[in-house]
Amino acid sequence: MTKPTKLIINCETKEQIEVELTDEEIAQLEADRAKAEADKAVKKAEDVAKAEAKAELLDRLGITAEEAKLLLS
Amino acid sequence: MATTYEIIDKATAGSGGVSSVTFSSIPQTYTDLKIVVSARQGSGGTDIKLTFNGSSTSYSNKRLFGTGSTAASDSANTTYVSNTMTDDSDFTANTFGNGEFYIPNYRVSGIAKSVSVDGVTENNATLALSMLTAGLWSVTDAITSITISAQIPNFVQHSSFYLYGIKNS
């Protein structure tokens, strides 16, 4: 399997080289990926819970979202 | 009229993508630097990370952002300057986010280096995002190299990075 690469540009010589990441760098990349995906899942769950709570409250009050906005303006 | 705005170098990700782009041996002949980015990431990541001289310490970020439905801010001491300016695989196909990093006084020793960042994602859906970052690297060395890294896992093909030098006269 091809390893991920990084691009290094020497601004003096204009040389561009693409080098494979080290095992340590790949491990860090994987750790970052896992954290970002976990953070994203948590955020999505929070957004869903918030939307559900809002809908439930509007339902209990018997008003629409637009009417709630009008009340708060 | 003096030329005060010049391209120093540029890079474009090839077919396999790249996880980071480093501009090294940056000429110490300008007043400020500006980096212009148009990029998309492979999956799950929209943040872009900037580091100087290979350092992963002494960075702080104050970020102000708005989505299609909310506005918010956050603050963090991290191992890089960050901004959300790249689309990921959840975003509309073939769209690229874009943004700019501005780094004044990059070669002046003895002062911490500030970075102002302005970025947007592009998405044909409710969720899209615009973000401003006030970044700081509390190290007083002159900046000789800059690395721009993807959050995860890489910048896809056609992502582009331009480094400009700006003189004040």
Topology pattern of chain B, helix = H, strand = E: EEEEEEEEEEEE
- Share in β-strands of chain B: over 45%
| Shape annotation of chain B | globular
| Number of strand elements of chain A | 2
Number of helices of chain B: 0
Explain what you see.
The complex is a heterodimer of chains A (73) and B (169). Chain A has 73 residues and is of the alpha+beta class. Chain A has helices spanning 23-61, 65-72, and strands spanning 5-10, 16-20. A two-stranded antiparallel sheet of chain A has the order 1-2. In chain A, strand 1 and strand 2 form a beta hairpin. Chain B has strands at residues 5-12, 20-24, 32-39, 47-52, 59-66, 71-78, 81-84, 97-104, 113-120, 130-137, 146-150, 160-166. Chain B starts with a strand and ends with a strand. In chain B, a hairpin with an 8-residue loop joins strand 8 (97-104) and strand 9 (113-120). Chain B is built from no helices and 12 strands. Chains A and B meet through strand 1 and helix 1 of A and strand 1 and strand 2 of B.
